[in-house]
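Prompt: Have a read of the protein record below and flag anything odd:
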Amino acid sequence: IVTFTTNSANMMIREIGIALFLAAVGFGAGKTFIPTLLDGGYVWIGYGVIITLLPLLIVGVIGRMWLKLDYFTLMGLLAGSTTNPPALAYATTVSTANDRSAVAYSTVYPLTMFLRVLTGQLMILFFV
């Protein structure tokens, strides 16, 4: 089967997919957000902010200053390390002239997913 899709239709399908993904996540988490926040959930949100931002800042500074990575590669690297499809969508819209962000994302993503599974197993093994 040979098909042809215009560039605008391709971009529309990508944006619809990301929008539906974010809507599904938002609807699933939104029901109990305020009660959880009021029952001490703000502490866990603070932990989440620290756990998310601190490694990103460290890797971003090391990648830019020491490894001399360009901006587009660094965006894809950081999006892949957090396994964040909306961040990849932003990175690909910013870097329309090249695909460095998508290549960096696809390079880091499998390793990150493997390490997440391995870390969870090790935490269960040693801390439970």
Summary: The mean pLDDT is 86. The chain is about 85% helix and 0% strand. The two ends are 53 Å apart (CA to CA).
